[in-house]
Structures are given as structure tokens and as C-alpha cells.
Amino acid sequence: MRPIAEHELAARRRAVARRLAAHGVAGAVLTDPANVRYLGGFALQQPWVSRTRPTACVLAADGTLTVVSSSAVTLDDPPVDAVVRYGAPDAFPAAVHDALCRASLGGEVLGTELGREMRLGMSVVELRAIEALHGAPFVDAADAIWAERMVKSAAELDRLRAAIATNDHVFARLWAGELRPGETERALTVRIRRMMLEEGADEPGWVMMAAGRGSYDRLLSSPRDHLIERSDLVWIDMACIVDGYWSDHSRSGVAGGAPSEEQERMQAVVVEATRRGIATACPGATLDDVARAATIVGEETAGRVGHGLGLASSEPPDVVVGSTVTLVPGMVFTVEPIAIRDHGIYQAEAVVVVTADGCEVLTRAPEHVAAV
User: What's 6-149's CATH class?
Assistant: First the structure.
């Protein structure tokens, strides 16, 4: 994989700063781990999981970036312009205010992650304390950040390709015999997570699963101590992480048997709709165009037929009817119409990247229901 070079990080920072400035916002305090990674070029584990010692990035109007971090956290010389340290956890707000003053942002209009599909990496109490020291509430910076994050660079695509290929390899192993009747959904999930690591993932992401009649209304669900029986159609939607970037696609197979004619027919309907959506994805088209092409008449879509993919397993843009987002090269999103019956979940989720003259499908796993 190509490294994400310092000049690319610097360009990202300047671009987000320009977008903020266009809306009268002088800078930003960012704490969402994905945004810290996107702009700061580094990742942490324990400090983000424990929630005791927040880490923040202060983005100045000129695109310079200051990291505010606990003195207990090892940063390993991050590719940023400055680092401000604090001691006790309750000193975090004062340290952020100090960084703002050093960046000549005192009293300015500032943004943070308040909007769509963003999460703060600090408590609301800590945010309010920073605002009190600053003397003004922060505004939402989400649109400026998403406008940049939605378009992936070549180095980002390397990471997405690797994560998606890991999923493909795990599906290949499942259909070659790793999926078998007589095992619970939970036990199979443990093995899938292990396979993800064996096939190159840095971290397993999540596994969703539905097996057997009476189960196919379970979409965003956790695997259960439910026994997979012979001839069950097993629908699996999974994601893993490679250097911060997520995969996400679903496939299905029949444990210890083959799909019925009706199951094959339903899957063919979904594959055809998925391919219509893919064929529509090209520069200048809108996500409304893609969504309409991929919609299966009479089937519910849970509000959308796809979503962006990157440093989150689901992020803007949404593939939804009515969207005015125009496709440009580098956008990555899923196309995933779905049909649900009492005999299965039917889906052939594809991940595509928009290219100069169309799109490229990044997923390689076969679209049919596998006979295992």
C-alpha cells in the first residue's frame, strides 16, 4: 500500500480550513477518532477506548494542526505542526483553550463535530467547558469535513481495496466448507473474526448474520446462540478494518445444501437491480440516479440503497432517492438493494469507486447464493 504522505495530510487540512472559512468559521476543534486520523495521520487505541484522556486536533485558518493530548499518551512523533500536553484528565479543556490561543483562534468562530454522522471524542461537559473558556459556543463543522472525506485519494483506495479483499477471502473460505450446519451463529462469528485476521485485517469490524426461517427480519442484529441447520440459507454481512479503513459487504450461502429455485430467482432479481445501480454510477450522475436505478419496485429499502465507505463503515454520501449529490471521481459507496422473504435475505452488496469514465467494482465475491 502507498503511504499516506505528509503532503497529502497537509492538503487535507488546508482544504477543510478553506471550506470552513467559506462559511465564516476560522478553525475547528476535532475529537472524532476518524477525523483525528484523517487530518492528523496517526491513530490511538487505549486513549480513545477508555474515554478518560481525550485527544483533540486544533485546525487553524492556515491549515496548521495542533494535537492536544495527555502526557500519558505516546504519540510517536505525529506528522503535525505542534503538540500541547496536559496532565490530569480534568485539565483537557484548559489545554485545548491554550492550543486555540497559540493558534491565534481566541475569540474566533470555531467549529466542531456537531452534525450528521459525526461523534464527539469528548464529553458534552468537556465541550461546554472549552466553549466557556473560549467565550462562545462552537458551530457545526461536519459539512466541511465530509466534503473532503467523501472523495478518496489513491492511498485511501489502497486501504479500502485491502479491507474489501479480506472480506472476499473470508467469503471464499466460508463457501469452500467453513460454513457448516450444526454450529451456532455466535460460534461461526468467532471463527469469521479469526479468519479476518488471518486474511490480512488489522481488526475485525462486525458480523451480522441471519439463518433459518423466522430469522430473516433480523438485519442490524447480533449473532445468537441459534443453531445453523442443514439447508438453512445463511446471510452474512461483515466488515473489517485495514489501517483505519473499513470494508462492508454481504453474501449468503446454504449450509450443507444448495439454494432452491425460488431462492435463486430472488437472488437474481436483486443482482439485476444491483447491476443497474452500478451501471448508472459515473461522473456527473447523481446519487438519486443510482438509487432509482437500483430500487426494486415493491421492496422496502430501509431509507436508502447504499452508503459511503471509508474511515467509517457507513458514512456520507447516502445512496437515496432525492439526493442531489453529484458523483465525482474518488467517491466510494455501496449499492445494496435488498429483498426479504421468509426463506431468506437476498442481497449482492457491491462497493464501487467512481472513476474518470464510470466506476470500478471493488467487491469480488460471487453474487449468487452459494451451495456449501
Answer: alpha beta
Whole-number Å distance between alpha carbons of 188 and 227: 10
* Strand ranges for 243-365 from DSSP E: 245-246, 249-254, 307-308, 315-318, 332-335, 338-341, 344-347, 350-354, 359-361
Tell me the CATH class for 154-371.
alpha beta
Q: Measuring CA to CA, which residue among 335, 317, 334 is closest to residue 326? A: 317
Report the distance separating Cα 68 and Cα 265, nearest Å: 56
d(CA 150, CA 83): 28
Domain boundaries, the chain: 6-149, 154-371
Q: Is 242 within 8 Å of 313 (Cβ atoms)? A: no
DSSP 8-state secondary structure symbol assigned to residue 74: -
- E strand or H helix at 289, and its extent? helix 287-294
Tell me the C-alpha distance between 207 and 221, whole Å: 9
Mapping DSSP to helix (H, G, I), strand (E, B) and coil, where does residue 253 land?
A: strand
Could you read off the pLDDT tens digit of each residue along the chain, which spans 372 residues?
899 999 999 999 999 999 999 999 999 999 999 999 999 999 988 887 888 999 999 999 999 999 999 999 999 889 999 999 999 999 999 999 999 999 999 999 999 999 999 999 999 999 999 999 999 999 999 999 999 999 999 999 999 999 999 999 999 999 999 999 999 999 999 999 999 999 999 999 999 999 999 999 998 889 999 999 999 999 999 999 999 999 999 999 999 999 999 999 999 999 999 999 999 999 999 999 999 999 998 887 777 999 999 999 999 999 999 999 999 999 999 999 999 999 999 999 999 999 999 999 999 999 999 999
Q: Rounded distance, CA 322 to CA 327, Å? A: 14
Per-residue cell: 124: 458534552
- What does each C-alpha distance from 364 to 1, 26, 60 come to in angstroms? 19, 44, 42
Q: What is the pTM of this model?
A: 0.96
The residue type of 74 is T
3-state secondary structure of 237: strand
